[in-house]
Amino acid sequence: MKIHEYQGKQLLRKYGVPVPIGIPAMTIEDALAAISKVQQESGGEVVVIKAQIHAGGRGKGGGVKVAKNAKEAEAAVKAIYGMKLVTHQTGPEGKKVQRLLVEQGLAIEHEYYLGMLLDRGTGRVTVMASQEGGMDIEEVAAKHPEKILRESIDPATGWQDYQSRSLAKRLGLTGKAATELGKFMRPLAKCYEDMDCSLLEINPLVTTKDGRVLALDAKVNFDDNALFRHPELEEWRDPNEEDAAEAEAKKWDLSYITLDGNIGCMVNGAGLAMSTMDIIKFYGGAPANFLDVGGGATAEKVTAAFKLITSDPGVKAIFVNIFGGIMKCDTIAAGVIAAVKEVGLKVPLVVRLEGTNVELGKKMLDDSGLNIVSAADMADGAQKVVKAAGGSK
Amino acid sequence: MSVLVGNNTKLVVQGMGSAGAFHAKQMVEYGTRVVAGVTPGKGGSRVPGLETVPLFDTVEEAVRLRGANTSVIYVPPPFAADAILEAAAAGVDLVIAITEGIPARDMVKVKYVLDRDYKHVVLVGPNCPGVITPGQCKVGIMPGYIHKPGGVGVVSRSGTLTYEVVHQLTALGLGQSTAIGIGGDPVKGTDFIDALAWFAEDPGTSAIFMIGEIGGDSEERAATFIKDNVNKPVAAFIGGLTAPPGKRMGHAGAIISGGKGAASDKIAALKAANIAVAPTPAEMGTTLAKLIN
Questions:
Q1: Cβ contact A225–B252 (<8 Å)
Q2: Contact flag A225-B77 (C-beta cutoff 8 Å)
Q3: A151 is a catalytic site residue
Q4: What's the predicted TM-score (pTM) here?
Q5: How far apart are CA A370 and CA A344, in angstroms?
Q6: How far is the C-alpha of A154 from the C-alpha of B109, rounded, in Å?
Q7: Cβ–Cβ under 8 Å, residues A352 and A375
Q8: Mind listing the pLDDT tens digit for each residue in B229-252?
Q9: Is residue A365 a contact partner of residue A333, using CB atoms and an 8 Å limit?
């Protein structure tokens, strides 16, 4: 689960991680009122207006503006609020800005990169840091891997202060800033652990001319598997940031991702679902979605999945690819037949069934009188559905 | 011959709720020696239809009173880490965790404790279909009937793709020594390299099929390992060639992030290690068959 920068900073502040003074605003009026409040609290004229969308690359897209005074800040609020912000992560259609963060401007000395995430290789949480902050860290990692410093967290002891001192030394932080890094890292690591984060990225982490260390940005993701421990996070979901179909899928406990092709897919198992997309592409088609109905799907769940697929107007053909294990082929057949009876079938449907109760499942589909193209195997099904969707692109 | 499970396996099923009981029955029908079930608070009772399987409150009793040496876990995610550690502490040698959706933080701790205190215990999973030695022992949720005893060792990150390759192999007359589902989570027990090393040493395994997917770099490390250590024919398939970066594809581990974990990189690494890579999931069986013949 992803949250906004301002929410991430609220969380960090709660843990005692230094962040700039700032006020989030959901409307233009609130944002304009926030300008003078932030100026008063910080005792400075300079404020930063930051668009709050989940995608990265906001600065380059014009969603972050530094204003020297109230007049400039007002202009920035009016320019950014409501704009279609296009970044490398939003896609060409962009994202409408409906939330702003008004923050104090800081006299920055240097920008660093800091990230915490799980290292699968070691099975431990790892802190990554670099002197090259503020910019595209993936580029730094690719071109200069030696510039990324790493510290692994021992699951028994958690983050230790000596690790902060070591990191400070290697980052070239001296004096007050080196001490401040320790005060920054300890609560940050605690927050990651307590909150079941899957990513905590501070880019940039800044030192100021007066020797403070603060999080100028905050990207916080949570482990979806651990959300049951943090019911309060539900409040932080922003429906504007969620794909409507993906949100609907979540209600049914379906794993669904919208893609931009024209072949709707319904598959059981994540690996098979991914591979079904691959084989459609291999034969020249384009999948409209990733959809894993899971192992224990009921006929109702299959019906819901089918409705999701057919609700996408871009879908020109549907491929149902099932390898029944625990999931029985007759259950799938019953679900598909019920769904078609309920929502109709306006596009060709190709079905490949294999596994438990396959003969019964096939017979049910044959007897249903529905216009279903049956496929002998995965390759046959993929070729048939690509043809049905208008041939290879 | 086989690896991990076989005729000597004495299985305890942890989590005899509806799913656990259902699969326990399937395993008994397949011929697996299911010696006990564990559900805290249900000790002394029996599950209808499973009258031969006594229920205990603790794994320790299952080991002491019934000689269990392997545990399979169907316990729900919030309690699954605790169940894995209980099994290790009770003295089983092998823990196969089927449960999907265990928080990563819990698995970090489990892995840490297993590495520190229970080095002899093998964990398979979590979030996996289990392990089967066809004709001898099935531990997990896979459909038993598609398997056939033989010489192909299968190791896979994906459940249904494992069924797919096994089905293709069986149709081609190629039986399996053991099929191991290692699961799709970022922090797990057995990884490709462990399974590959077992298969390399197992006299009953004459060839290996490996199924990987996007995310992490296990496949790349496996490719290097195979090049240096495995003298048996190996074929592979990698799922997710067309998966878009930044989108998690069902499995907690299946995501291309930070430009890493793409299928194309993994395929290139495997090919560089002279491993035959199936071009599509429909050609997994035939890719290995060509290599053997």
A1: yes
A2: yes
A3: no
A4: 0.93
A5: 10
A6: 10
A7: yes
A8: 999 999 999 999 988 877 777 776
A9: yes
